[in-house]
Amino acid sequence: MSGFFSEKFNRLTPYTPGEQPKERTYIKLNTNESPFPPSPKAQKYASDAIAKTMLYSDPQCTKLRQALANQYGTTEDCVICGNGSDDILNFAFSAFCDTKTPAVFADVTYGFYPVFSEYNRVPYRIIPLKEDFSISPQEYYNAGGTVFIANPNAPTGIALTRDEIEEIIKNNENNVVVIDEAYVDFGAESCVPLIKKYKNLLITQTFSKSRSLAGARLGFGIADPSLINDLNTVRYSINPYNVNSITQAAGVGSLEDQKYTDENCEKIKKTRQKTAKRLKKLGFYVTDSCANFIFAKHETIPGGQIYLKLRQHGILVRHFDAPRIADFNRITVGDEEQMNALIKALAQITGRQI
Ligand code: PMP
To answer: Regarding beta strands 293-298 and 328-332, do their DSSP bridges make them parallel or antiparallel, or are they unpaired?
Structure first.
């Protein structure tokens, strides 16, 4: 620390992103990226947009918001775009939490939630997941703060149904409920249809996973226009040009190639099912994941050891050395070839056959 760093950040422990190593070529199954390239139109529109980068990007993301509204059966005033969905989540912590309105979220969930709380200097209340890592919806009724639920949850992959979430929204009418749907395209029910009914619901989604655009940094929020206006007040107070023009163009291209995304999601779902079955044969317990990752724990070998051994085999997975989950690893579902390499390495590590 420099000695100049503001005291307001005394307690801030920043988020630790998954490794992006340069020293050798790993099979990267540690940051839930897509194994497939961006769609053809996403690539074409992005490269066409480079020639116009002497101009600022459109702060309203007009074309992109129109395309999103069209895709999700809503209107443009219900949509906000961000530099990844992390951007929108940060705006939400800033806009909808304060000392009287804490953030409320699970103990085992997206690691950025406590960081955003600290960064925005708002208190938070933790609701532990059940023993089996599922969420008990009733524990979120009348939460007394702004609720943040990742659905499917990360790193567990377990999802609530739309009906269960609707009950949480109904039972928090004086507070905002934020549903982080970063992984929803891989098999959970989206709550987007509920935004017409509830003025206290904000959905966040991302182009980083199902749409293969993690490096372009594009996310969005969908909610009643009143919530979107609040988020825009924060956004315009920080950086109105938070989504660059190349990324906006890529996003429009991706939405025009919807079939490409749908097909890739189907492939991931099939590969997830097959990989989970094979992992079980090798002695792993896996949660019932609806996401593009599998959360797996071996019956005898500690999680940290599996992580290190896989690394020696040139395969990166994500290990969180945190209470309750230290025995697990989060493994991104890649393509068939990557998963075959994973299973082959794990067969050696566990000394078992599949
Ligand atoms: N929510 C969850 C649950 C995530 O795992 C991630 C990815 N790290 C994000 C949001 C943010 O993703 P992005 O900023 O790339 O949209």
So the answer is: antiparallel
Residue 20, CA distances (Å) to 17, 27, 37, 236, 313 in order = 9, 11, 17, 31, 16
d(CA 241, CA 258): 26
What is the residue whose two structure tokens read 């293969």?
Answer: 212
Give 31 Cα–ligand 1 centroid separation in angstroms: 9
CA atoms of 352 and 234, how far apart (whole Å): 54
Sheet strands side by side (includes 177-180): 79-82, 219-223, 201-206, 177-180, 146-150, 103-106, 124-127
Does the 20-36+259-350 domain belong in CATH 3.90.1150.10?
yes
10-residue mean pLDDT profile of the chain (354 residues): values are 92 90 88 98 98 98 98 98 98 98 98 97 98 98 98 98 98 98 98 98 98 98 98 98 98 98 98 98 98 98 97 96 95 97 97 87
Out of 87, 180, 186, 292, mutate this one to test ligand 1's pocket (max ligand atoms within 8 Å of CB): namely 180
Q: Find the residues whose C-beta lies inside 6 A of ligand 1.
A: 84-86, 110, 150, 154, 180, 182, 206, 208, 214, 219
Element (H, E) at 270: helix 258-281
Query: Rounded to the nearest 5°, which phi and psi values hold at 15?
Result: -65, 145
Strand partners, 328: 297
Do 29 and 21 form a contact (C-beta atoms < 8 A)?
no
Specify the pLDDT at position 1.
Answer: 85
pTM of the model: 0.97
Coil, strand or helix at 152: coil
CATH topology of domain 40-256: Aspartate Aminotransferase; domain 2 (3.40.640)
The full set of domain ranges for the chain reads 20-36+259-350, 40-256
